[in-house]
Amino acid sequence: MTVTESDLVEAQRHTVRTLVVTQAMGGVGLSSAIAVSALLAKDISGSDELAGFVQTGQVLGAAVVSAVLAVYMVRHGRRPGLGLGYLVGALGAVACIVAGTTRSFPMMLTGAVMLGAVTAANNQSRYAATDLARPEHRGRALSTVVWATTIGSVLGPNLTGPGATVARWLHLPDITGSFVFSVVTLLATAAIMLVRLRPDPLLLARSAGPALGRGTENASDRDASGRDASAFPVDAERTFSVIRRTPLVLAAAIGMALTHAVMVSVMVMTPIHMDHGGASLQLIGLVISTHILGMYAFSPFVGLAVDRWGSPPVMGAGGLVLLVALVLAGASSPGASFGLGLGLFLLGLGWSLGTVASSTLLTASAPDRQRPQIQGFVDMTTLFTAAAGGAVAGVVVGTAGFGWLSAGAAVLAFGVVVTAVAAGRHRSEADEHLPGVATRQQ
Fold it and tell me: How many beta carbons lie within 10 A of that of residue 412, not counting itself?
């Protein structure tokens, strides 16, 4: 059956609408867990350092699952892959409830790793929004789905108080109540994804390349047996080679990794920093909500800015905002303060600028046939970098303090600025490979 341009427009609208709903619900499930995961880990283990390693486990799980989902989606499409990610995350929330009840730190680590699947699914959802988008509209399509996380992610941390009430009803420890909300919302998210994401945007995009303004299939896209090679995952060595040999893809990967490492390392230890000053659980949740508001609420404007001025300038602006955020947060005293709240808000905003810009640059610059694998591989390396940051963050705060953590993160934020400048110098390469849209995309 011939796919018309109007069919693609309607399919893209339906895809974005579905992803907006699932991203919002997935945000509730993930953020309600993240808001208390470090506190639960500290309560179980009695150690700030081990509390940081729980977040590291979550990020490592997201990294591994990102690569697995990328391979799975290349074979089967976005819908089953994203649905699987949310289901695994729901099981992880169950494991965290069991950990809080049995006082088992290994079980807590297991649950955190499985919760990483939600991060992986949310990350891949932003790419799914671009599968059917016209090249000049990728930034706004991607950022619309990122924005949808605002709804759930701001609500999630504020469920810590109600969660304690629910936990008492269920005869569970108070702090595990947030994970009950995670289980329910993630199961519902998986169900909506599996039922509603039809037609599958990735599979439809493969058959509609010309109508989307992309190239048609050629002989190099087929293997020796004549099968469509795009239906099978490329090996890791080939994927890494494409990233290494394509300067804009490499710049996007580095910018994304550094941006995420800065955000994760500081965000995960903020509840511990506030707890040292005697801040209440509800106030900690409010500050994390403010941070998440900065991460997602303004992303549509970030996407429009990327489509208008290009990815490198927006990425550079993100690095500068991160630097300001780290100065404010690092200078704050333990507990709660206006400076810490503003710093965490700007930390989220800087992350939004850097992530939307880097993700759009990656999507625009990666070769069509390798794009899903490259997206998964870059997400994996980005999350591994963030996992390292989370692990180091716990040690730094436990030995030197929150201020020194912010100072170290500032070095990485400056690297985002440098990477953005380097990306801007490769505009001529983008013009060569992406004629007609490079000036808007890059």
Answer: 21
